[in-house]
Amino acid sequence: MKRIVSIMIILVLCLGMYVPAVAKEGIPMTAGLTSTVSQRCYIDTEGNLWMWGENEYGQCGQDPSTKWIDKPIMVMSNVVSVCRRKEAVIVLKADGTAWTWGYDFNHGAEVRRKYSNGKVLYNYVKGPEPYKVADNVAAVSIGNQMQFGILKTDGTLWTWGNSIWNDLGYNASSLPASYFKVPADSSDMMGYEVSVPVKILDNVKTFAMGHYDGMAIKNDGSLWYWGNDDAISMDSGKATGGEPLPPTKIMDGVVSFNSDDEWDDVVLANGEAWSLGGAITGNLKNRHKLADNVKMVMGPVTDARVEISTGKQYMFDFILKKDGKLYSNNGSEFVMDNVVWVEDVEMALQPMNDRTRNYPSLYILCGDGVLYERTAVYNEDFSFNRYEIRKLADNVALPGQPFSSLKAKVKPFEDVYKDDYFGTAVEWAYNHSPQITDGVTKTKFAPERSVTRGQVVTFLWRAAGCPEPESFDNPFVDVNENDYFYKPVLWAVEQKITQGANADGTRFVPSQTCSTMHIATFLYRSIHFGEDGWGDIARNWVMSNGLAENTGLDVKIGEDCPRSAVVTFLYRYYEGK
To answer: Tell me: the pLDDT tens digits for 252-263?
Structure first.
């Protein structure tokens, strides 16, 4: 059934509107770029996937006996893209592997019924266990009827899943039996349920699985469509009630699109936005131009106030302006500031038996990484009460970024990532007993900050276990009992690590920054008692033992040594010896 009203969210540059947002189905997925928010799930800035909501098929990665998950729970790490539709989930991990779970046609099947004539019907097994689909994947998507797609790093597009109307881009009935977990037409679903990906296109950079169809943009800017065009027959131009198409080129010069149910919209390279409706097969009289100077077109949102009070479906646009202000009801109602992403969520119940919190729902992601939900709240008599905005999560990753932007951090620090060359060393130093360093603040390690003489001898002393000095005779006028480095300095003097920084040995100069040569010498002396080691001896020892490997640093005078390198030298020596 066609929509009564279809008003699109558009980005109109000439009006100063900026809409980096998507709608509830047919979200374009671009190779190599993150997609971090989907229906009741998001990816945080460290690549952790969080999910909540329906779980009757294990969609949230939990035992299906728990039908609904109230709050976001972490399901998987190292995730760069996610797409969730109804009963199933597909994710892309940082290592290029694609995984599915829920109702994904890959968890096997079980006998539902046997007939006397020998016919057997099956149920597909649903489950929370991730199933690895493929390697070398660059983007993933699910359609609204559980059609799956993966875009590989070589630009090839592959599809599988539910093919009620041959909406995967090929005639599923022609596939060999090895492509099905159960014999075709003998499951508990209509049509064919393909379990093995089938290649349908080459040279693809962006794609989305839609309602009973899919769309893709190739590297040359051409737009391709496949699946069930239920509005217009390619031959007659008349409504036929459904005619499946193989991948078919629709037009050139396309830079973006939105596929939402039977209505599809595109943005051309010249900035024109067109609504294609169901007429993607060539009947131009059913296409209409939306606007000029457009960057992105988005799908409509249902106004619950109108639908509940009148029984009619009214759909309006959300407008996100260039200044980050989000407006609803065709721009007349201010919603929120500093917005970077909007997504419409399908109608559902939350919880499933509580009609006082009936969707539609809108997810709003702000530039500070805070994710909000705008939900329609109803009275007990089902009359509309209000729209409510509540915070769902902090530290949500922004979409459309390179995969490398999602990195796991070394807790509790916001400026140290686990894949930094010093990441493991900082984690070791923080968790070491006794603790070698707890950072310059509770959340910042300041890896590039130079270290001082007072700090480095303290690091060495703590790494050695905080031994008590044998004598408390203090030769230095600039070291006092209340200094944090008091005992470390006295211990360092006894161990002949340092004898001070001036000729007569009366000053330690604890605030003086250290070069990489100083650090190498201090560490060398702490291990080789009584040896001076200054210069090439300490440098060669550090380099030959791999302590400075992959740090980008040389051991020399004049190059300040950062905190990251000091803990790395210590970690590699103490853990490698």
So the answer is: 998 888 776 555
Helix-strand-coil split of the chain, %, nearest 5:
15, 35, 50
Regarding whether 545 and 472 lie in a shared domain, the answer is: yes
- Domain membership of residue 416 (yes or no) is yes
Listed residue (200, 207, 212, 198) closest to 166, CA to CA: 212
Query: Do 398 and 328 fall within a single domain?
Result: yes
* Pair 363, 506 in one domain: no
Report CA-CA distances (Å) from 116 to 113, 119, 121, 185, 207: 10, 7, 12, 18, 46
Q: Is 246 helix (H, G, I), strand (E, B) or coil?
A: strand
Same domain, 374 and 510: no
Residue 254 phi, psi (nearest 5): -95, 135
Domain span including residue 505: 412-576
> Do 393 and 422 lie in a common domain?
no
What percent of the chain is modeled with pLDDT above 70?
78
Strands (E), 115-211: 120-124, 127-134, 137-142, 147-152, 157-163, 192-201, 204-209
Residue 219 counted as domain residue: no
What is the DSSP secondary-structure string of 305-374?
HHHHHHS---EE--EEBTTS-EEETTTTEEEESSEEEEEEE---BSSTT-GGGBPPEEEEEETTS-EEEE
User: Residues, the chain, total?
Assistant: 577
Residue 190 falls inside a structural domain: no
Pair (322, 398) in one structural domain: yes
Residues 6 or more apart in contact with residue 540 via CB below 8 angstroms: none
Q: Which amino acid is at 451?
A: V
Domain count, the chain: 2
CA dihedral 318, 322, 323, 325 (to 10 degrees): 0
The tens digit of pLDDT for each residue in 338-376 reads 888 877 765 444 444 444 444 557 888 999 999 998 887
Output the pLDDT for position 9.
Answer: 35
Closest residue by Cα to residue 250 from 198, 299, 314, 201 = 201
Radius of gyration of the chain from its Cα atoms, rounded to whole angstroms: 31
568, 422 Cβ separation under 8 angstroms: yes
Instruction: Say if residue 510 is in the same domain as residue 527.
Output: yes
CA distances from 155 to 461, 481, 486 (A): 55, 66, 62
CA distance 46 to 302: 33
Buried b (16+ CB within 10 A) or exposed e, 267-291: bbeeeebbbbbbbbbebeebbeebb
CA 426 to CA 411: how far, in whole Å? 10
